[in-house]
Amino acid sequence: MIGEAQERTKIIFLVEDNRGDIRLIQEALKRSTIQHEVVTVRNGMDAMSFLHREGEYSEAPRPDLILLDLNLPRKDGREVLAEIKADPDLKRIPVVVLTTSKNDDDISQSYNLHVNCYITKSRNLSQLFEIVKGIEEFWLKIATLPTQ
């Protein structure tokens, strides 16, 4: 009981430009048993502003997990990943690339940039829900994450 009361809300930072995918991922996460909040931005520039707490994001919470699409407007997901993993204050935040790309170059480049996990989105609704549930289970329940 005491442990439950002290458990803080996990922040899932979703960087995704497709409104349909945003809705589906949010819907899948609604079924979660983990206390969480999903914060979403739709382009790479806003993602970096959020993570650096700049401008309108000056009060942004630090994410516990980043779900990152690769094909983003204004700043590509690959650039966002490279900037996160090059930043000493951000590099320990787990980043899961969640994208439609099955391209071997995208997969290799993402791992070369130190992504924590690369997952290809399914267009099948039930499979997508299972993928999101698996991400949540592993990264927010099983894995031990750094506190800051």
TrEMBL record:
BP GO terms, sorted: phosphorelay signal transduction system
Q: Which Gene3D superfamilies match?
A: 3.40.50.2300
Family annotation (Pfam families): Response_reg
Q: Which UniProt keywords apply?
A: Phosphoprotein
Keyword Phosphoprotein part of the UniProt annotation: yes
As stated in the Swiss-Prot or TrEMBL entry, residues carrying the post-translational modification 4-aspartylphosphate are 69
What SUPFAM superfamilies does the record tag this protein with? Answer: CheY-like
- Boundaries of each Response regulatory domain copy? 11-136
Q: Which PANTHER family match?
A: RESPONSE REGULATOR RCP1, RESPONSE REGULATOR RCP1-RELATED
Q: What is this protein called?
A: Response regulator
Identify the species of origin.
Answer: Lyngbya aestuarii BL J
Taxonomic classification: Bacteria, Bacillati, Cyanobacteriota, Cyanophyceae, Oscillatoriophycideae
